[in-house]
Amino acid sequence: MRSPQPLHAELLRLLRDEGALSRAELGDRLEVSRRRLLAELERLIATGYAAEAGVATSRGGRRSTLVELNPDLRFAAIDLGVTSIDVAVTNGRLEQVAAYQESADLRSGPQAILRRVDELLAKARAEGAYEQLTAVGIGVPGPVSFRDGVPVSPPIMPGWDRFPVREYLSREHGCPAVVDNDANIMAVGERQAGAAHSVDDFLFVKIGTGIGCGIYQEGNVYRGKDGCAGDIGHIQVDAQGPVCSCGNVGCLEALFSGAALAREATAAAGSRRSPVLAERLTASGTVTAKDVAEGASEGDATCIQLIREGGRHVGGVLAGQVSFANPSMIVIGGGLAQLGHILLAEIRSVVYQRSLPLATRNLPVVLSELGPRAGVTGAAVLASDLAFEQAS
Q1: Which protein family is it in (predicted)?
Q2: What is the CATH topology of the domain spanning 197-368?
Q3: Where are the beta strands (DSSP E) in the chain?
Q4: Tell me, what's the pLDDT at 24?
Q5: 75-189+373-390, superfamily in CATH?
Q6: pLDDT at 103 > cutoff 50
Q7: How far apart are the C-alpha atoms of 78 and 378, rounded to whole Å?
Q8: Distance of alpha carbon 24 from its chain centroid, rounded?
Q9: Which runs of E-coded beta strand occur in 3-95?
Q10: Which of 74, 189, 212, 232 could bridge 377 with an S-S bond, Cβ 3.0-4.6 Å?
């Protein structure tokens, strides 16, 4: 039984994910009449989305012609972090033809950040990566109205509230654009080409400057009514805890995130509870999550304790999500995933301990396979999905 997607979108996604296929194979896979399929292919070839690609291997009669995505299709994929910009340009098969990554301060505002994105894409164009973009996908680290293409009151993105990101990118690059939360695009990327490949029900937990959760249900991202489903970073963990960037007290993000871990590590260094962190603080004036990870790998007890405490907080919140949603997998990603198996083991332990056995007996909790590439991979998928749905 075919899905309710338009035939042209199904067809183009199949060519994206599988590569060149014969007309006979496409007809078999899509379960449509030959007449309808040929008419749709003729239209997509005429409009520049698909192209003929030689002759297929014989299946016993007249050999069918292969069809592929137009090699000139190009998608821009952008993953904005609080301290970084990742930009990639891909072909229709989502293979990167250009990629750039650099440090940035998202708090400098949307005009400055998006202007830099424009400059990086102009550089890719000048280097021959594309002539015209087919669509743009972007992820941002805050709540997003997916319907409107704008961030909404993002706690760690001052100046971005209601900025028309989708409209800006579409106008500047002459193509459709899609805007989503960074945890969602990472989840999309991980399902396309990572640990959750083809898994229909899973949680992707992004732990970085902020904490968010991309939710997959029945093969689709679940965004909720207004687009902010999965904002687990602002679930209260400790009513007596520190003030969060959202203005509330004791949120998960306030207790364990890049900023929270740096705060606790700095205190441990200042009190000399951690010789490793004290040495790093003396040498550079600051300590970071990376210092904690390196200290833990050297056996520093305080660094290990900080990671385990963070894992317990995350695991406690995820145990609630497991009881509520009953996912078939949990994937841990984002910048703090570099804390590795100490963090992962603590999250697993708490999830397995606090959730019912029926929900956890076949529940893998794993690290992201794509790592820092999850965001741009997912942004490219969303850009291509948008373009294929609008193909005419």
Answers
A1: Belongs to the ROK (NagC/XylR) family.
A2: Nucleotidyltransferase; domain 5 (3.30.420)
A3: 21-22, 50-55, 65-69, 75-80, 84-90, 96-103, 135-140, 144-145, 150-151, 177-181, 202-207, 211-217, 220-221, 330-333, 365-367
A4: 87
A5: ATPase, nucleotide binding domain (3.30.420.40)
A6: yes
A7: 9
A8: 35
A9: 21-22, 50-55, 65-69, 75-80, 84-90
A10: 189
Sign, CA dihedral 367-372-375-376, equals: negative
Side-chain half-sphere CA neighbours of 322 within 13 A: 29
Rounded to whole angstroms, how far apart are CA atoms 273 and 59? 71
Cα 242 from chain centroid? 28
- Cα–Cα distance, 68 to 54 (Å, whole number): 10
- Helix, strand, coil % (nearest 5) of the chain? 45, 20, 35
pTM of the model: 0.94
For 205, residues 6+ apart whose C-beta sits below 8 A from its C-beta are: 183, 211, 212, 213, 232, 314, 318, 330, 331, 332, 333, 334
**Confidence at residue 57, expressed as pLDDT on a 0 to 100 scale:** 67
Structure-token pair, residue 298: 């050297």
Task: Specify which residues 177 forms β-bridges with.
Answer: 136
Sequence-distant (≥ 6) Cβ neighbours of residue 364 within 8 angstroms: 329, 330
Average pLDDT, the chain: 95
Cα–Cα distance, 391 to 49 (Å, whole number): 7
| pLDDT tens per residue, range 279-324 | 999 999 999 999 999 999 999 999 999 999 999 999 999 999 999 9
User: Which two structure tokens, joined as six digits, stand for 96?
Assistant: 């990167």
Tokens of 50: 């698909």
Can you state the angle between helices 165-173 and 110-126, rounded to 10 degrees? 30
Give the 3-state secondary structure of residue 238. Answer: coil
Give 7-69's CATH code, choosing from 1.10.10.10, 2.60.120.1680, 1.10.150.390, 3.90.1140.10.
1.10.10.10
Token pair in block for residue 66: 């292969």
Is residue 322 a contact partner of residue 355, using CB atoms and an 8 Å limit? Answer: yes
- Residues 6 or more apart in contact with residue 84 via CB below 8 angstroms: 101, 102, 103, 104
- Predicted local distance difference test score (pLDDT) of residue 60: 58
How is residue 225 written in tokens?
A: 């009514």
Domain boundaries, the chain: 7-69, 75-189+373-390, 197-368
